[in-house]
Amino acid sequence: MTRPSGGAGGFTYAASGVDIDAGERAVTLMRTAVERTRRPEVVGGLGGFAGLFALDTSRYRRPLLASSTDGVGTKIALARQLDRHDTVGVDLVAMVVDDLVACGAEPLFLQDYVACGKVVPERVAAIVTGIAAGCEQAGAALVGGETAEHGDLMDADEYDLAATAVGVVEADAVLGPERVREGDAVVAMASSGFHSNGYSLVRRVVAAAGLDLAATPSELDRPLGDVLLEPTRVYALDCLALVAELGVDGVHAFAHITGGGLAGNTARVVPEGLEAVLDRGTWALPAAVHLLEAHGVPRAESERAFNCGVGMVAVVAAADADRAVGLLTARGVPAWVAGTVGTGTGARLVGSYR
C-alpha cells in the first residue's frame, strides 16, 4: 500500500500554510508597542491564554460594563494596494472605542483579531503597532489578541481586522437620548478624513475615474492615497474630558458618525418628539468629498455614506455649548456649534456648506 507523502520530510503545518515560527516572530516585533498600552489594572503580560484586568470596583458607585465590537472594513484594501499597514490599526481602535464612549463609558481594554492569508511578521507587527498606537490615544490597554493564518481561505497578502473593547460607566451617568432636551445645542467635532466608512464607494469611484493614489489632485494638498489612509480620529479621551468638565447635566449624549452619515447617526440620540437641526453653513465640506462628487457621487449619497467632515457630535445643554467648544478646541479637536434640538423627528441637515 502506498503511503501519502507531504514531501521529503512528511506533512508539516508550515507546508500546509501555517508558519508558527513567523507568528512567534510577529509577537516579538510587536511586544514593545503593546507594552506601551499597559494600564495599572492589567495583570500579567503577553503570552497568556486570556487577558486579565483587575477592575477596582471600589472606585465606582454602580459600575456598568460596556462592550463594543467592530472592524475596519474595505479601507484595508487600500492599505494592501499601497502596502502601508501602520494606520489601519488606529482605525480599528477608533471604530470600537468611539462607539463605547458614546454612552459615556471609559475604554478599559481591547483585544484584536488579525486573520491573514500568510503571516508576514513585519506586516503583522506594523498592523498591531497601529492598534497599540490607537489604544494609547484612547487610554485603553491592549491585553491580548489573536493572529490567525488562513492560507486556504485568503490570498497571501490578504488580511482582515476586528476588535472588541470593554469599558465602564456609572449607571447614573449613562449618556443617551433619555437625557436630551429641547433647546440643547449640537456641538460638532471635526473628522480627520473619511475615517473607516464608505470605502467600498470610495474605491469604486477611484477605480472608475482612474485616479492615481500616488498623485496629488488639484483639490487636495497631498497625495490621494495619503488622504484616504488618514487614520480615524480617536475621540474617546476628549469626550470623557468633556463629561468630566461639564458633568451629565451639561453633556447629554454623543453620536459617533459612522455608516449612515451625520443625520442618520445623530438621530439615534434624539428622543421621540424632538429633532436635531444641523446647519451645513457652520462648516466646509472636505475637499476629498468634493473630489468624489466631481467624479459622480451625488450629494445626497455623500451625506449618507461619508461623515462629510464631522466625526462625532455632542448634544449639550445650551448654556454649556461655548465651554464645550472651548475645551475641545484646547485639546486639539476642532469643534463648533452646528445645530440645535427642537420639536420634530430625528435629525436633518439644512442650508449650504460654507
TrEMBL record:
Q: Which SUPFAM superfamilies match?
A: PurM C-terminal domain-like, PurM N-terminal domain-like
Q: Does the entry feature the keyword Nucleotide-binding, yes or no?
A: yes
What GO cellular-component annotations does this UniProt entry give? cytosol
Gene Ontology biological-process annotations: 'de novo' IMP biosynthetic process; adenine biosynthetic process
InterPro entries for the chain: PurM-like_C_dom (IPR010918), PurM-like_C_sf (IPR036676), PurM-like_N (IPR016188), PurM-like_N_sf (IPR036921), PurM_cligase (IPR004733)
The protein's UniProt keywords, in alphabetical order, are: ATP-binding, Cytoplasm, Ligase, Nucleotide-binding, Purine biosynthesis
The pathway is: Purine metabolism; IMP biosynthesis via de novo pathway; 5-amino-1-(5-phospho-D-ribosyl)imidazole from N(2)-formyl-N(1)-(5-phospho-D-ribosyl)glycinamide: step 2/2
The record's listing under PANTHER family reads: TRIFUNCTIONAL PURINE BIOSYNTHETIC PROTEIN ADENOSINE-3 (PTHR10520:SF12), TRIFUNCTIONAL PURINE BIOSYNTHETIC PROTEIN ADENOSINE-3-RELATED (PTHR10520)
State the name under which the record lists this protein.
Answer: Phosphoribosylformylglycinamidine cyclo-ligase
